[in-house]
Design goal:
- There is one protein chain.
- The chain is globular, with a radius of gyration of 15 Å.
- The protein has one domain: Rossmann fold, CATH 3.40.50.
- Helix 2 (34-42) crosses helix 4 (55-70), helix 3 crosses helix 4 (55-70) and helix 6 (106-115) packs across helix 7 (128-146).
- Helices cover 53% and strands 12% of the residues.
- It has a five-stranded parallel sheet, sandwiched between helices.
- By secondary structure, the protein is of the alpha/beta class.
Length: 176
Amino acid sequence: MRPSLLFLIGYPGCGKSTVGRLSAADRGVPFYDTDALAEGLLGCSVAEAFGRWGEEHFRRAEAQALRQCLRLSAGVVATGGGLPLQGQGMQQMQRAGDTLYLQLPPAVLAQRIGANPMLRPRTAALRGDSLLAFIEADLKAREPVYRQCRYLLPCAPHGVPLTPGEIVQAIAQLTA
């Protein structure tokens, strides 16, 4: 029997929220998004929180959102891209349920993030090659933590991104 909590982990723009909603429906469990929960606690968007109070203030709200999710009995949880790197976040998620890394190449991430730059406060001012270079370096720093997940799902085999439906099917097969 699979654990009743599944934490989706990965770089911003990898599709955690989109895939999480679909995967939760597929599993018949609720969907939670730590960014949305943190926004509810703060009363504003992630981008607004970064602008008003800075990243550290947002990270405290994000940690509080994770604590809420750790008390759940079932669900699929889309985590913020930086959440696993904060304190004992990854270890707490591993103890509470399964962790799955949605892995995408930097070029695909840059394309997705570049399409809506204002949604991502850490990269909002970056474009083109500078955005790609930032993502490559940042992902390289994050990957050792992301790779601690129980499951790793390459979401762009041969450089072609899978559809959300294909990713949900792959998640179901991996976690069966």
